[in-house]
Amino acid sequence: xxxxxxxxxxxxxxxxxxxxxxxxxxxxxxxxxxxxxxxxxxxxxxxxxxxxxxxxxxxxxxxxxxxxxxxxxxxxxxxxxxxxxxxxxxxxxxxxxxxxxxxxxxxxxxxxxxxxxxxxxxxxxxxxxxxxxxxxxxxxxxxxxxxxxxxxxxxxxxxxxxxxxxxx
Amino acid sequence: xxxxxxxxxxxxxxxxxxxxxxxxxxxxxxxxxxxxxxxxxxxxxxxxxxxxxxxxxxxxxxxxxxxxxxxxxxxxxxxxxxxxxxxxxxxxxxxxxxxxxxxxxxxxxxxxxxxxxxxxxxxxxxxxxxxxxxxxxxxxxxxxxxxxxxxxxxxxxxxxxxxxxxxxxxxxxxxxxxxxxxxxxxxxxxxxxxxxxxxxxxxxxxxxxxxxxxxxxxxxxxxxxxxxxxxxxxxxxxxxxxxxxxxxxxxxxxxxxxxxxxxxxxxxxxxxxxxxxxxxxxxxxxxxxxxxxxxxxxxxxxxxxxxxxxxxxxxxxxxxxxxxxxxxxxxxxxxxxxxxxxxxxxxxxxxxxxxxxxxxxxxxxxxxxxxxxxxxxxxxxxxxxxxxxxxxxxxxxxxxxxxxxxxxxxxxxxxxxxxxxxxxxxxxxxxxxxxxxxxxxxxxxxxxxxxxxxxxxxxxxxxxxxxxxxxxxxxxxxxxxxxxxxxxxxxxxxxxxxxxxxxxxxxxxxxxxxxxxxxxx
Lengths: 168, 521
Ligand SMILES: Cc1cc2nc3c(=O)[nH]c(=O)nc-3n(C[C@H](O)[C@H](O)[C@H](O)COP(=O)(O)OP(=O)(O)OC[C@H]3O[C@@H](n4cnc5c(N)ncnc54)[C@H](O)[C@@H]3O)c2cc1C
Description:
By secondary structure, chain A is mainly α. Chain A has 8 helices and no strands. Chain A has one domain (3-124).
């Protein structure tokens, strides 16, 4: 679970002055209906047909953990019941609140937490750290085969023209 | 390591990055005792994390900063104007390694470009000929590939796309370097194992940084007293106007003072002017060494932008060296293009974690997730060129926001100059052509990241009224105060700055040694 923990503590720390004591304090946990609505919001706002529920659920937990100012529950309540709405209608509802602290919290946390999730990395085709495996030197750093091998040395013809005259 | 008494007046260097780390090694290896005050921790390669956010949390400079201006960073990352490092080694732990030299005409920016509206252009007080021998030494220290007989790095996947595209559109001046990472063992450090994560410190130590070269070597001389987690807050001076000490806060927040014979400020272009401004006194009411009023002004961050191109087939851009690919054809001054100065294109790869935050900040919905879904088949490049110095782009002390110690945080104001905007558009079009030539199905134009290149806020000038330091980096106003980092750059030029910062620091150290031997310092 260390991914989740890392993701949860980092995003808001990057942009907020964490020396302010007023930003610490934990709001009431979300109820079941709010939890379900948050999950729907995440899936509609960050739609990936190839992602299972796991990464979205972990992101949901990260968003809740990052809600130091307690804007999440009210924001979800204000969206109202989403059950009868299709994805386009939910998108429109989110578009309307895009600039609110509620949606900013969701966005700033999700772009970090969802894409720092190792299950997501695997789905997207990212292998992450390689140092402990000897790097990518013998593991495909140059395995692209749909283009010819290019020159790696500098051009050895005439030197580069650095200063061009203005045309009349 | 030396242990130097607080009342022993020595050379005090503030910051241990490209400028400060180089200065520390050049002086200590010549027998001069130095104290280095470094705000960050002493991390070693064993500590480095090959994970983008974990490494960022570990070493990025996250102290509060505020912003204003028309640049997009002020909206998307209002408290993170710069992406730089707070650790021993400074931002050289993060840097990727591109090491072009500044071109001859770029040292004469005002003369070459003429008057540009709104730009505070000035010729450097030195020329390429003055710096050339120091560039040679800096390339040897850094171990730049393609230079002084060192071999090229091989082509990784991202470079294959980039270089083939370059060739097809008719560019000639592309290569996998010059790049500050070993293609073969050099200088006691191993060859690259193409493990990526240059930005995260490089655990393999194939990449040069002052954390793996200059600082450990300076410590071995027995002349360096390295004090990590010590944040300089004020430089003091005596009644004759010479600086005589540096006050700093240690990890526990206690205030100390180190006596100084010479002070070298190398805290990068936001913290260096902040420190000078915080060191105002009755003799220097507008900040130390600020009779010109130029301290903090002319802040430059390079014209930058990125292009991420999608293909029908896999690229896996993240495998291998992050930035081992440069196209130099557009690094020229060609007034027929409608803007002054030029730019380089360089390969760049971000993992999904960073890409999601930076590819199009603020975007969500399917247009955003489509970009992320294409990760495997994406190639990336960075565009980096000269930006115009403007007096109003500046670092000031924020009157309202204080840091954990109650000190004013730095405020960074930046407006793009129309020249920067025109150059960026040209660069995006060049990227479209390059990737289009090898079959891209779409290229996304990513706006500038928080600044990795921070320059110009204590600029060098011939005349004291035009800048803060002279051609040696010595303050015009104070005989034993030097600025030793990228803030001395008179103009930004197109080249990535670190090679120049190192060359300037080596040259400055040589000058300090000479002045010490003749009793002038
Ligand atoms: C991701 C990334 C990639 C990069 N890639 C390249 C590249 O390919 N090529 C290139 O040329 N450049 C590159 N750079 C830029 C390069 O890292 C910087 O230009 C260079 O390190 C700046 O040197 P400096 O000495 O001015 O400052 P830094 O290297 O940042 O060092 C400043 C040091 O001073 C310390 N400090 C600041 N204030 C205080 C204080 N008050 N008291 C004590 N210590 C203090 C800081 O903690 C820091 O360690 C890159 C940067 C980043 C972030």
